[in-house]
Design goal:
Blueprint (H helix, E strand, L loop, with lengths): L1 E5 L3 H13 L3 E5 L2 H10 L4 E5 L8 H10 L6 E5 L4 H9 L4 E4 L4 H16 L6 E4 L2 E4 L4 E4 L2 E3 L3 H12 L7 H7 L11 H13 L8 E4 L3 E4 L4
Helix pairs in contact: 2-3, 6-8
């Protein structure tokens, strides 16, 4: 999933970002309301995590109100130290989809995010991706091809998920750097080539027909038709 976290407490933000990224998710982080609103309105996310009390003149509820006013229905989890019943009610009535009180367990945060994303997709069929005989279960985070399980590291899973969501399309290095590695610049390394090579060894090499294709000078395409 691609997730936006708007949280001004550095310790909490680091904890959440590290945990989500280790789980293979792409995370954008803003530490104030103004930057958070900018990201929320200019990028597309599967789910957002918003603190209620934020610097920058815009708090979490104001961000929610602005998003809902424009018709943005992205699921939002409010993360706040405000724990009174009225605080939770106000957050949900403002347009939040869930409310988690600090301090919290990361496992619960992760489970709530998965539930929100699942609810947004609407039905169980949309929790899986498929290209030919390659299957990915987004909930269990399991991958198999021709019924044979494939073990992937978190970054490999995120890379394959992005390629599968864009199956049949040319995916450039810039697209991968921005959406899988969250780099908004070219680090001038071969990190993509290395991960593509490892991924190809796992999803293609043991099987008869390659799915992952390299278009020299252009990018990559996951396609069963080549």
């Amino acid at each position: 999933m691609k997730i936006l976290l708007v949280e001004d407490t550095e310790r909490v933000a680091t904890f959440v970002c590290n945990g989500l990224r280790e789980g293979g998710h792409a995370v954008d982080h803003a530490d104030n309301g103004r930057d958070g609103l900018f990201l929320a309105t200019t990028q597309t996310y599967d789910v957002m995590i918003l603190d209620r009390m934020l610097p920058g003149g815009i708090d979490g509820l104001a961000i929610i109100a602005a998003l809902r006013k424009t018709g943005n229905t992205t699921p939002i989890l409010i993360l706040s130290a405000l724990a009174e019943v009225d605080d939770r009610i106000n957050g949900l009535r403002a347009g939040g989809d869930d409310y988690l009180v600090k301090p919290f367990a990361f496992g619960e945060l992760s489970a709530r995010l998965e539930a929100l994303a699942r609810r947004a997709r609407g039905n169980e069929a949309e929790t899986t991706l498929a290209v030919a005989d390659l299957r990915m279960d987004l909930l269990s985070r399991k991958v198999n091809r021709d019924g044979q399980p494939i073990s992937l590291q978190p970054r490999e899973f995120a890379l394959l998920e992005y390629l599968m969501r864009h199956a049949g399309q040319v995916v450039t290095r810039t697209m991968l750097l921005e959406n899988v590695w969250e780099y908004h610049f070219d680090p001038q390394t071969n990190v993509i080539d290395v991960h593509i090579s490892k991924l190809r060894q796992k999803i293609d090499a043991p099987f008869g027909k390659p799915l992952l294709h390299t278009l020299r000078g252009v990018g990559y395409r996951l396609d069963a038709n080549d």
